[in-house]
Amino acid sequence: MRILSSFVEKGSRFYKDHPRYSKLLVVAAVSGGSLLAYSSSNSSHHVTGDSESKKKRIVVLGTGWGATSYLKNLDLASYDVQVVAPRNYFAFTPLLPSVTCGTVEARSIVEPIRNIIKRRGASATFWEAECFKIDAKNKKVHCRPVQKSESKDKEEIIMDYDYLIVAVGARVNTFNTPGVEENCHFLKEVEDAQRIRRSVIDCFEKASLPNISEEEKKKHLHFVVVGGGPTGVEFAAELHDFVKENLSKLYPKVKDFVKITLLEAGDHILTMFDKRITAFAEEKFKRDVIDLKTGSMVVEVTNNAIRTKERSSGEVSSVPYGMAVWSTGIGTRPLISEFMQQIGQTTRRVLATDEWLRVQGSDCIYALGDCASINQRRIMEDIAVIFSKADKDNSGKLTVKQFQDVITDICERYPQVKLYLKNKKLKGVSDLLKDSEGKDNSTELDIEKFKSALSQVDSEMKMLPATGQVAAQEGVYLANCFNQMAEREKNPVGPPRIRGEGRHRFHPFRYKHLGQFAPLGGEQTAAQLPGDWVSIGHSSQWLWYSVYASKQVSWRTRTMVVSDWMRRFIFGRDSSRI
Q1: What's residue 297's pLDDT?
Q2: Which residues does 246 contact at the CB level (< 8 Å), separation at least 6?
Q3: CATH number of the domain within which 446 lies
């Protein structure tokens, strides 16, 4: 009896010291058997912060370019960081077209997010789950595990946050075209690239069967790419090289039936590039016998044909195909659509943030990458307030010197001013006044002349492109802001507040374009770098190799990608269907 009493006393102390084990119920039977059960009646699991820790909790949604860049640069030791994403790795998406044809293996371009966190030498928790609701009012996110459990308990995970970083990316935009979701391949994820690779081999194997007619062979080996942007163009070029260099030798009896078609609704492909690159790409595709159809809109996709409408004539035609890849831009994820309704941004395609990447209407939610865009303020909305702040003597007029004193802060707060000066080739304030007045005889400006001088500036406002380069820079910027948060609360370094007193804590985000590439097949790449520098050809291909190898997130992936390129040069691409 004394032994039992001692056991109960020790057990009681254990549960008091370790309350998280209080749900464990041990039932012992006289026969010596035992039953261990975990009591849980809730269908959700609430993850709260450590009450003993004074660290602010940051919940990061996503493991793409923006989220990974943020995690790589954030001082993890200063915060309680929780990462939630349906995939437990970062994927180097610019090389997805290479994965579709075996130029690079899928595992060579992915890095486990836990490895990235571990290399930082600080603690952060990763949850493989998908967020389906953001509760901004109560500062909670609702998630579901990706791996379905047999038990229905704990299907929902609720997490508290002090700061929320939304970096969930975007999904493919089908423009509600009938049949696209059911019949087309997309190229957004690693799994998409792997499915395309298997589908290409399937088409060749089907066409090689002895009971297949010539018409069926033509159908099976007709590959259609919808979308003339960088992804669509690069995939078409990769597929052409795969067929020409490898598959034509393995399937010699059906090689003459292969046809690659690229459909683009606009007048040209690669419209975001220099016109010289666009012209070269279109000419090269003609030489490579890639059927390029511009001004052709897809109106329906069935399981064996694509219906298109010519924009110029309105003529509708139907084309049989073996495989179709849809690459026409990005759409909004359901999570973001629901959240935008919650915060009153119902008329937008993506989340609107301010210049500090903070979601408009929220103080503690930030968004970056493809799921958000910066809603840059127009200078004409604040023109009266700017004039009032510059007019320190309340005379109702500004001298040129007063205008010069305020122009630096204006340029930082409104980047379109700097772009306007650059595009108009204006050197400074005096040139801006000349441009607005037509002559330089004004020594003072009233509010109307001030408005006139800046009236055309807002025409230079542009949205940032939805690219990995933009998301990565946003991640670095936001991480640096969080690293300096405590210091900048006391000593702000941003521009003066236009509507309010004092200064902003940080300088606003500014994107610096570092250039872009467009691989065109045949070991030729088009490169467009800052300063209107354009290079096309084999030398640009080697530059592409160098840049993409250096941009890998680890030495492991860097080594694997380079070895894949070397393997392809020596042995060719693998055509196994795995």
Answers
A1: 97
A2: 572, 573, 575
A3: 1.10.238
Helix, strand, coil percent values for the chain (each to nearest 5): 40, 25, 35
Same domain, 523 and 501: no
The answer to which of 206-220, 285-299, 377-391, 422-436 has the lowest mean pLDDT is 422-436
162 and 63 within one domain: yes
> What pTM, to 2 d.p., does this model score?
0.88
d(CA 223, CA 231): 15
What digits encode the pLDDT tens for the residues 350-373? 999 999 999 998 989 999 999 999
Query: Strand, coil or helix: what is 257?
Result: helix
Q: Per-residue pLDDT for 22 more than 80?
A: no
Q: What domain range includes position 80? A: 53-170+332-376+463-512
Q: What is the H or E stretch that residue 418 is in?
A: helix 415-423
My answer on whether 346 and 422 are in the same domain is no
The two structure tokens encoding residue 529: 């770098």
Cα separation of 268 and 275, whole Å?
Answer: 9
CA distance 240 to 259: 9
**Among 176, 492, 195, 450, which residue's Cα sits nearest to residue 356?**
492
Q: And the tokens for 323?
A: 């495989």
* Range 472-496 burial, b when 16+ CB lie within 10 A, else e: bbbbbbbbbbbeebeebeeebebbb
Q: Are 289 and 278 in contact (CB under 8 A)?
A: no
Query: CA–CA separation, 407 vs 379, rounded Å?
Result: 12
Residue 216: inside a domain, yes or no?
A: yes
For residue 459, give Cα distances in angstroms to 273, 350, 378, 456, 464. Answer: 21, 21, 9, 6, 15
Q: Are residues 326 and 336 in the same domain?
A: no
3-class secondary-structure state, position 383? helix
Closest CA to 300 of 263, 338, 250: 263
Indicate the residue among 442, 460, 478 that finishes a domain: 460
Both 304 and 438 in one domain: the answer is no
Residue 101 near residue 573, CB atoms below 8 Å: yes
- The CATH number of the domain holding residue 296 is 3.50.50.100
- Mean of the pLDDT values across residues 92-117? 97
Same domain, 203 and 306: yes
CA distance 541 to 535: 10
Q: Which residues contact 178 (CB under 8 A, 6 or more apart)?
A: 299, 300, 301
Q: Which two tokens stand for residue 421?
A: 């000066």
